[in-house]
Amino acid sequence: xxxxxxxxxxxxxxxxxxxxxxxxxxxxxxxxxxxxxxxxxxxxxxxxxxxxxxxxxxxxxxxxxxxxxxxxxxxxxxxxxxxxxxxxxxxxxxxxxxxxxxxxxxxxxxxxxxxxxxxxxxxxxxxxxxxxxxxxxxxxxxxxxxxxxxxxxxxxxxxxxxxxxxxxxxxxxxx
Length: 175
Description:
It holds the Pfam family CheW. InterPro entries: CheW-like_dom_sf, CheW-lke_dom. The strands form two sheets. Strands 8-1-2-11-10-9 form a six-stranded mixed beta sheet, with no helix packed on it. A five-stranded mixed beta sheet has the order 3-6-7-5-4. The termini are far apart. The mean pLDDT is 89. It is built from five helices and eleven strands. It has helices at residues 2-23, 83-86, 95-100, 161-166, 168-171, and strands at residues 31-36, 39-44, 48-53, 67-73, 76-82, 102-106, 114-118, 120-125, 132-134, 144-149, 155-159. The radius of gyration is 18 Å and the shape is globular. Helix content is 24%, strand content 35%.
C-alpha cells in the first residue's frame, strides 16, 4: 500500500515538474534519438519502453530476415526486430557491434511484445535541437513522421512506433 502511495506521489511530482518546465519555456525532450545502419531516427518517448543491452536471441525459423528471433527481457519473451532490416537497410553486424547494440522495447501501453535492435543510442532530443524540418514524403511509409535536420546537417527521421506496430509489414514476420 505504501509503495502505491509513493508511486502516486512520484508521478504527481514528475507531472508538475514537466508542466513547470513547459510553462517556463524550458526544453522538454520529446524523442529518444537512435542510430541504425548509419541512419538516424527519433522515437517518441511516450511510445518507447525500456532499453536493454544486447542479449542472446533465439532464432525463429521461416521468418523474415529482419525478425531476429525472441529474447527473454525481464522474464518476458519478446520478438526482436532489426530496425535497419525492417526499413530496408542492410546491416552486417559483427559480434563486437552487437555487443554495443541495444534493444528498445515498445511501451507497454502499446501492447506489443517486441523490441527494436538499434546500433547506438544518441540521447534525448527536443524540437530545439533542430534547425529545420520537412514533412514526410508522399511515398514514405505511414509510420514515418517529420524529418528534422540538426545544425550539422544530419537528417533525423521521426518514427511513430504505435503506427509501426500495426503496420502490415511489421506484423508479417513469416518468410
